[in-house]
Design brief:
Elements (H helix, E strand, L loop, with lengths): L4 E7 L3 E4 L7 E7 L10 E7 L2 E5 L8 E8 L3 E9 L9 E8 L30 E4 L18 E4 L6 E2 L5 H33 L12
Parallel strand pairs: 2-8
Antiparallel strand pairs: 1-3, 3-6, 4-7, 5-6, 7-8, 9-10, 10-11
Length: 215
């Protein structure tokens, strides 16, 4: 009767190992309708996909367990069917699936050859340094309200970057120079005027001096 025996997987399904690394044993258990293990039940193992050799016992042990070892010969997906022998009746099989990875040809440190199991880690995006507005003396500058001008001179300081200095405008020096030049011209004009007056007074000859002066 079909429901008198039940085949279940104990361990070994879904393995992913590299070629040359032994797989864990594939184990199944046979129970009766009440859940008790059944010994001496004929078990068949069949490699449905992949290449390699299966070593397994012909019957379940005293605990109702049958164990098999799969030795793959190349990389790729594999699928192994396990079933109760047709001599015991018509029962549904169980399926073991897994994957054998290719041999590793390079370490993850040199990255010369990457296999399917190695993923390149994502690097964080570079963050541009934020400029800091500073005034003379190294004190942070409080941004003024709209309509007001920044104190001068001002320099922009960015981390690990060259300091860009905004030079103070030179119009104050130009105005001061024009002022001194104007003073110099006025001084020359005044000096010429005074010199002309003195020369006019002393250069005129005295004619017919008063007779009372001559003794």
């Amino acid at each position: 009767m079909k429901d008198s025996k039940r085949l279940e997987i104990v361990i070994g399904d879904g393995q992913r190992v590299r070629l040359g690394t032994p797989l864990e044993p594939l184990k199944v258990i046979v129970r009766d309708a009440m859940g008790a293990p059944l010994p001496e039940v004929c078990i068949c193992w069949h490699l449905d996909m992949g290449n390699g050799v299966i070593e397994a016992g012909a019957e379940t042990d005293a605990e109702g367990i049958s164990c098999a070892n799969y030795h793959p010969s190349d990389a790729g997906d594999y699928r192994i069917l396990c079933m109760i022998s047709v001599l015991e009746g018509d029962y549904d099989p169980v399926l073991f699936e897994g994957k054998i990875l290719a041999e590793q040809t390079a370490t993850k440190q040199d990255h010369t050859t990457l296999d399917e199991d190695w993923e390149i880690p994502e690097m964080p995006a570079p963050v541009a340094p934020t400029p800091i507005l500073m005034v003379n003396g190294g004190q942070p500058l409080i941004v003024p309200r709209r309509g007001r001008q920044l104190p001068k001179p001002v320099r922009m300081v960015a981390p690990k970057q060259r300091v860009a200095v905004i030079k103070k405008p030179a119009h104050d020096v130009t105005v001061l120079g024009l002022f001194f030049a104007l003073l110099l011209v006025l001084g020359v004009i005044v000096g010429l005027a005074v010199g002309t007056s003195v020369t006019g007074i002393t250069s005129e000859p005295v004619e017919n001096p008063p007779s009372d002066i001559i003794k």
